[in-house]
Structures are given as structure tokens and as C-alpha cells.
Amino acid sequence: MEKYGLNHLREMFMDFYAGKEHYKRKSFSLIPENDKSLLIINSGMAPLKPYFAGVEAPPAKRMVTCQKCVRTGDIENVGHTARHATFFEMMGSFSFGDYFKEESLVWGWEFVTQVLKMPEDKLWASIYEEDDEAFEIWKNMVGIPEERIVRLGKEDNFWEIGTGPCGPCSEVYFDRGEKYSCGSPDCRPGCECDRYVEFWNHVFTQFNRDEAGNYTKLANPNIDTGMGLERIACIMQGVDSIFEVDTIKYILDEAVRIAGVKYKNSMAKTDVSLRIITDHIRSVVFMIGDGIIPSNEGRGYVLRRLLRRAARHGRLLGIEENFLNELAEKVINASAGAYPELEDRQVYINKIIAVEEEKFSATLDQGDAIIAEYVEELKKTGETVLEGGKVFKLYDTFGFPLELTQEILEENGCCADIEGFNENMQRQKETARAARKTHLDEGWAENAMDHMFAGSTEFIGYDKTAGTATVIGIVGEGNKPLDEISEGDTALIVLDKTPFYAESGGQASDRGMMQSGNCSIEVAEANKLRGIVMHKSRVGKGILRVGDEVVCIVSAPNRNHTAKNHTATHLLHKALRMIVGDHVQQAGSSVTAGGLRFDFNHYAAVPKEGLVEIERIVNDEINSFSPVDTAEMPLKDAVESGAMSLFGEKYAGTVRVVSIGDFSKELCGGTHVSNTGQIGAFKITSESGVAAGVRRIEAITGMEILKQLNEKEELVKAASEKMKVLPALFLQRVSAVCDESRALRKELEEAKRQTAGDLASELISGATAVNGVKLIRKSFKGYGIGDLRSLSDDIKAKCCGAVLVLASENDGKATFLAAVTDDLLEKGYHAGNIVKQVAAAAGGSGGGKADMAQAGAKDPSKIGEALAVAEGLI
Predict the structure, then answer these.
(1) What is the DSSP string of 452-463?
(2) Spatial distance between the Cα atoms of 115 and 4, rounded to a whole number of angstroms
(3) Which residue of 228, 253, 267, 831 has the fewest CB atoms within a 10 Å radius of its CB?
(4) How far is CA 219 from CA 95, 223, 259, 424, 434, in A?
(5) pTM higher than the cut 0.70
(6) pLDDT tens track for 546-599
């Protein structure tokens, strides 16, 4: 076999399928579009899911792609095996309801045997054990001997993920020879040894699986094939590892040069580090090139983890200086032919890598030393688990991703306390959230707090909404401690004790007033920083000085409404667990005077009837007038009593337990009503998804329900007056109007169809001859894109040798459609190119296929100028 390079193989594959009338689509970005189920594109078909699901129309019924992918699920194996990688390219041919098994398998065989010229006697095929159709194609149409067609079970050769589209698949294998065999007489595809390498999977999505496990045939079956570019390159180049493929070895060789070591001629750990660096820098370059930046969340965290893991393995090889950008240059050199955007963004890529590597390098040595000390301490005590606080310190102070710390610990026979790490992480998030509330918070007050105050502010507001306190500090903007503030000044006021509840645990802070003699101060909010409550305040009149005694008055309506919503949140939590399931846990909340928001972990939307039942349970508990009791007790006793802890809270030795009759018991530091009857009523306003596996319920209580009911009543009254009917007959009238509208639309469509034939003939007879081509141009008012398409089809059915450019003005915008009759396509006329330039004349853009394309523009006054452009183009 000829040893084709990786870049050549990619080009050969794309060109072959383009020759089979497949639309060549460049790789989608690694950032998924409108797909919250994925952080990063991890397979060839992932970006095409909307096409397979029928949510979006594909640009063509046949497509071919080579998709860049990042997958970190097996990251611990990268470097230790010959085939694992976080970055890879997946070549694929796709049919959306067009061709099916025969074409897929026959064309695939043609590519591997006639284009790649792989020896036929080395090729095997596996099929699903019940797929006789695929067997017949392989045996009778392709000509593979029966003994080289292997039937495998559902686990190996049937693709499905839960319910929905699914189907059998057929895989193509390459026989590497007996030296890779396990020696078993039954050795064949499906064997665990290394002799037979699967390199191409043809998936036939021909069924739909329902929740009962039944399979029904799809009306329009699809084809989804996938062939790993690096894997086929291994086979074609006769190498045993992806790290020996030409473009990847080019990068690895540079890592070898920088490190001053030898590959495959030294310690195994050296080889592992070289492979990890080589793989990870490929992922890093492509991720940054697609706009992902390092962070501590989401895909940014994946990037940071890969980059820092590569940097650390450089240190293990003895590389003292920052080196990743030298390797990034090699990645770009090797891949820019297929991905020119890497070259275009090289300066940006280098900048991001340099900043991140420098940031990590500054703390890497110190962090490594600290881990070494931790490991030594564990060994001395005979323990193997590093407690969560120390793991978090490595993450927060030294920038060590959790997985990197785990990896280093595992190298030393230890492990990390993940639960403890998560608790520390959540505590930091809650602190940061409160501190971000205003520029008067941490931004310019934290350092002042460190130097001015010790201890914590005593909270006296559980049982009262007023009290006296002493001003012990005033902090102005710019970290400036102040002795006094006067009328119009805004500052943070610190008291020795306060009845103002500081925002915490999802509950909004109190607001209200302070008074001292003739001085009045408005308190907008209260926030807590390391136990010190800061009152964001504005002086209305007079002068306030440090040492003054103030009377604090909490806004009772605001406090009461917030307390109602907080207690209702506890009732909602319990009702959710009763209806949805015991797995429900709070994943965040927001409690204000205006309403409540409750996030919880669940895999699907709560059905309408479930929400109705949850509402009923909560309102029943409200109408039971159950007492709401609070008690402080040791955490251990609280947990043993059955009290639930809430999301993200870090509890001290003594905790506050809120009990609602026999219905609910939770650990909570917030404010609550004393009896559920004070809530009045409870109404769910929405249920939605906010993240993968996280749902959100929003609700209101008490007078807010009456307020919204009155607003909706007024809305119905106003709408009824417009429709000239009584509110009781409003729905009936709306239904009648909708029926009338549908009938009118139907009449209009019928009228358009009746006149379309005459209009098509009229436009053909009025065509302009340009260089032997009939140019048909016409603008309309009120025509939709569907109308223009229908007219175009009528014209193309009645004549040949024509180029059509149609336009329509709708709602202050212009729509263009270009079409080319089939006989002109072979001469190079391309509707997509034509409509793009026509629309540009009206300040618009668009494009599409050669036979028909569409565009839009914002300036309909230039439709005439735009249509005139068409003649020049022809």
C-alpha cells in the first residue's frame, strides 16, 4: 500500500465523496451550536444532530465532512496506549433520507480498494447478526467471501442511545497479520487482540425505538458513517501508533528536541509524557482557534486542564522554560492546509497559550512541592486520602485542576477527597457571588475589612425587625476608611450588631433605614464578607460618625414577603421530592420579596399534571396553618433528626433547623414566617431547564398572586373590548377569528396557485436574452420565500437555458431568490454565487446551492438596483 500522509488522506476522502454528489462541508466549530447537551463537539455526527432529528433542513441530502473532535473521557489512557487521544478528526459520509445501505457499502468499498488501494484479502466486514440485507450486499454486490463477513450481536453492531432513531451498523476491518494475533483459531473481527483493526463504521439508522422497546421502521432512513483519520493513517503508513503518523510525529519530534530526550529509547515514563504533550497541544491549539479560552468552568476548564497537564509533563521531562508555543507552531504548520483559520489566528492562539502557561509556571514548582509534602505526611500517618481542603488549596491557590492533583496523587498510591473539595468549591462560589453584588463590596472594601475589623457582626434580626447598634466603621470608595459621612454620601456602614439580614443561602438581603439624632440613612442592601455585615447605605440628611448609636429599622413588608417565599421554598422542595422523586436535590435558589426561584436536579421536564399536584400539596400545607419552628443544635444531632442540608451550604458545628409541622425539616439560616397560613397562597409561574440535568421552578405567593391575577384580568378585559365581546365569550371569539384567518389564507394560496401558471408563462415570454441565456427578473410585494420557490419551479418546468432572479418586499425587508435551469449548471452557472452578489447591492447577504439559493436584505428600496446586477453577472 502507498503510504499516504494524513493530510492527503483527508483530501482524498473529501474529494471522493464530492464526486458522488456529496456536499463538502468544512469542519464545524468545536463549540456546539444550540446544543446544551455537549460542552465540546466529540464526534463526527454531533454537529449534524439537528439534520438527523429533522429540526433543521440540511444544506444537501448528501454530505461529507472531516470533523475536528475533542474527547476527554479516556484522558487517563492518553500517552499510555497507542491509540487513545483527546484530539482526533472523524471523516464521515452522510445521507439524510437519500441513499441507503447499498450505496454506502459499495462506495465505501470502492474508496478503500480503488482509491486507497488497500489489499482486498486484508479486509473484513462485520454486520449486525440479524442484518441479512447488509450480508447480501457485502457478499453478492461487493464480493467479499462469506467467511470474511462476521455477524456480531447488538452490543457490537447496533447503534442506539435510549429512545429515538437507531439501527444496525457494519464495520470494516483491516487484518494486520498473524504477528498481532492472539493465536486462537477463532481469532477474527470482534476478538480482543490487536490483529483486526476496525477503521470504518457504517451506521444505518432505519428504526425508531419507543419507550416500550419496540422498533418501527423510519419512513426516511439515514446513513451516518465514521472513519477516524488518524486510525486509517496508521494503517496506510504501516505504523503501530497514532503518534507515529506523519503529522503527529512531526509534533512529537519537536517535543523530543525541546526536551533533549529520546523517544522509544529511554524510560517508559518519558515516552508517556512525550505522547501526552503531543496529544494535548493539538487539542489546545484547535480549541483556542475556535474561540475557547481557559477558565474554571465548562469547556474553558477542559482547555485549562489539557494545557496545564501538558505543561506539567514538560517539567517532568526537564523542560524549565515555557515551551508550548513552540509546539503550537508545529501543530499549525501541520494542519493549516485544511484549517487555514489556525494560521489566521496564530497570534491570538500564541497569546492565550503564553499567558496561561506563564500563569501556571509561576506556581507549578511551589504546587508540586506542596503535593510532595502532603504525600509524605500521608505516608507517615499510613493514610492514602488527601483531605478536600488541601486539594482545594492546590486548585484555588496554585491553579492545579482537580484531575491533575488526582493524577499526581495516584502516581504516589494516594487519592483525593472529592466530596470535601466540592464543599470548599461551593463555599467559595457563594462568597464570590455575594461579593460581586456591587463595586462597593470586595472590589474596594475587602482589604479595608481585613485591617479595620475583626470577628463578626452579631445578627439580632430573627425575632425582631428593629434595634439599636453602634457604628464601628465606615468604608468609602477606593478602600478608604472614613470618620464620617454626610448628606448625599454613599458608603458601607459596619455595625457591632444588626437586625438586617445579609444576603445568604439564596435569600435576598433586608433593606430599610437607620436613624441617629437628626441623621437619616437609607439601607439599600446588606452583604456579608467573612462574617462582617456591610450595609450599603446612603445618607438622606445629617451627618453620621464612627461611634454613633443608630436605630435600625428593617422594612417590614419587604422582610415579610421574603420570609413567605423562603418558607414556601421549603414546602416546594418537599413536594417535589414527593411527586418527582427522592433523588431531587436543591441545585440553587433565589428568594426575594417578589417571588422565588428553585433549581433542582432532574433529567426531564416536570409534566403539567405533576406541577398541578405540587401546587396542591404546597397550598394544602399552607391552609393547614402548620407551625414553623426553629431550633439550634449540633450538626450531628440535626442530621440524625432527619434535617436536610441545602445546596452549597457549609455548616458550622452548631446549626439552625427549620421545621414545618411534620411536613419538612431543613438546615437553614434564613428568615421564615411563624405559621404556614401567613404565606396565603402559592402559585407556580414557570418550569424550565437551565442546564443539563437541572430544572427550574419559579413561583409567587400571597399578594403577588393577587397582583398578577388583577393584571391578567385587565388584559383580558382590554382584549375583549378590542374584540367587541364579553370576557366570558373572548375565547370563543378568538377561535372564530383563527378559523376565519385559516380559511382566508387557504383562499389566498389557492388564488396564487391558479395565477402562478399564467404568471410563469408571462415572465418567460418577457425574458431578456443575455449571451444566449434567458434572464428572468421580477420583483413582487408581499410574496414569501415559499411563493418565490413555487414560481421558480413552475418556470423551470416550462423552459430551459434560463437564470431567474426574483425579489419580494415584505415588512420593510427584501427577499431574493435565484435559480438556474439544469442545463446551465454544467456550464458553470451557480445560483448561490448569483444571489450573493445580487443581495449585496441591497445591503444583504445569502447563498446556497447551484440550482437554487436565497438571500435577504434590509433595504427594499434598492431591489431594482440589485436585480440590474444580474445581467452583468451573466
Answers:
(1) H--S-PEE--SS
(2) 11
(3) 267
(4) 14, 13, 58, 53, 55
(5) no
(6) 999 999 999 999 999 999 999 999 999 999 999 988 767 787 899 999 999 999
